[in-house]
Structures
1.
Amino acid sequence: MSCGPDTPDCQGVCRTVAAMSPVRSATTLALWASAWLRGESADDVLAAVDETGQRAGVRAASAAVAEATGLPGPGSPSAGSVDLLPLLARGGLPELLLPHAGDLRGLPPGGDVTVPALDSGAVVVLPELDLGLVPVDGQWRAYRCPGRRVPAAPVFEALQLIDEAIAQATRELVTADIARGPEQVREQVRDIMLAEAVHCPPGTPGRASALLAKAISLEALLRVAAGHQTAAVTSRELAVVDDALRPLSLAVRAGRRSAVDHAVQALAGSAAGRICR
């Protein structure tokens, strides 16, 4: 099942998509880590995680993390993706963080994880192990990441925030008469949407998958708009586009976190009564 433009409720035919962004990889890992806790097979979990393109395995980012986890450290060959499974089993409910300039919530001040997490735009935190898994150069890097959980907005609040941001951005762009764009923009947006579709685990709630699909669609639009594929031509008009879309970008980021958090909680709840790995 893929959460994407044609499958808003995560039902239907699976869609094979190419790896695109670290955010997609981290989203997939957080969802399937919860599925692993619930009892999904190792083969299915590893297939979903490897499909995002992080095929070079996993390694510790420091000697201290290597000693604590048993992962190979700097200078050693990476372990295979299968070595993620014991960490996911012991790490507790995974948390997806989407750090960006001005918002480092959930990351330890001055921690080694901060810069790579900012560069990738995503990190999956395993709170019981104080670890952060960051997709870097086709592999997962494990960093020490102590900190407190950052609550995600409830799904209905995230949807409302996105809808309000869409309405505001539309009003501002239409008022400035720069809401138009070349015809090929639609194809670019759709290509990104397809590439960024996330393979959701069985049992993912429909509300979570629908919100995730909406976030993916809007992120595709924002990425194309960031290339100023609109009717804006002057520096002032380009600034209007950036200002109009900034609140929407924040709302979409919050929406993705909300969708993943809701799915993680639901999948973990369905694991009640199962034998711990």
2.
Amino acid sequence: MIDRFDDAVVLPTLGTQLGLDLNHVSESVARPGQYFSASQVDLDTYDQIIVCMSGGKDSIACLLHLLDLGVDRSRVELWHHEVDGREGSSLMDWPFMTSYNRQLAAAFELPIYFSWLDGGFEGEMLKENSYSRAHHIETPEGLLTLARDTVRALPATRRKFPQVSASLQTRWCSSALKIDVGRRALNNQTRFNNKKVLFITGERRQESANRARYNQLEPHFCDRRNGMKARHVDAWRPVLDWDEER
């Protein structure tokens, strides 16, 4: 057990601090279904394929790569997280992004579902001694509004602009406006129960030292393949090894 902890935690941490490449160590103790490199997956084994579509080059590259691989389009849907929400703020996002992504989906004859944190980036940044706000998630059955837990949670204050950091607590925009919204969208739709889902995002190793250490294929943190809901969710980053010039 001590050796396993050293291999999985201590050595990779030292490698990061010393600037050494110890990814081969983490590969050797990978969890089932976890692969540092997985440029190809068997798309036919998945019931549903979700592409997180920001509208940027990397997410579009993911979609085009899927189509090049001959994916069954009837299994594909696009998800776009609106970082400003729909409550009137226009602080962060380009005003055309919602329309742009809707037209992009229409061009490829794919469904697209939008989701957002109530109040968006601005509302979260200005949060002061208050509870986190609801998530709004479009689904095939209509709009799903998910309130937050005000029984176990406590009011909190943000009042800070997110900073460049590998920590999602410091760079909170990704966690609060994208990751958490996507997590609740997966966890609160029964259509994913007893299904095998592929969740695709467009990170690339070239973007940062932290992303250089990402696994290309692994169980998503919403995966419950062995649980009562039998929701099998794999996270795949198909363009992870692509460079900027490709």
